[in-house]
Design a protein that fits this description.
By secondary structure, the protein is mostly beta strands. It contains no helices and 10 strands. Strands 2-10-9-4-5-6 form a 6-stranded mixed beta sheet, with no helix packed on it. A hairpin with a 6-residue loop joins strand 4 and strand 5. The radius of gyration is 13 Å and the shape is globular.
């Protein structure tokens, strides 16, 4: 069955960095675009970044553009989110998703606080 396992979250000070990973299984990873979403307490889930399946083209929410980088390793069935210059408002649970596949992982908590 489809599984998405996010990891790499934690507590970091403003201005710090984290690298999230999402290990995928149960589907042909290289054929699917992948996305990172986040959900802060009391807010709707927000699309953060997308990477396409073939060309690896990327798009970002305006709120993270220039600070976050999405990437993928098709040999490892893994998608990453490098987060730099973190802000308090980046605090959320982060989820990965395969576009067109209705499964979600458990998410990984990112807390940015001094």
């Amino acid at each position: 069955q489809v599984q998405l396992a996010e990891s790499g979250g934690g507590l970091v000070q403003p201005g710090g960095s984290l690298r999230l990973s999402c290990a995928a299984s149960g589907f042909t990873f290289r054929r699917y675009a992948m996305r990172w979403y986040r959900q802060a307490p009391g807010k709707e889930r927000e699309l953060v970044a997308t990477i396409t399946s073939v060309s690896g083209s990327t798009t970002y929410a305006d709120s993270v553009k220039g600070r976050f980088t999405i990437s993928r390793d098709n040999a490892k069935n893994t998608v990453y989110l490098q987060m730099n210059s973190l802000k308090v408002e980046d605090t959320a649970v982060y989820y990965c998703n395969a576009v067109g596949i209705g499964y979600w992982g458990q998410g990984t908590q990112v807390t940015v606080s001094s």
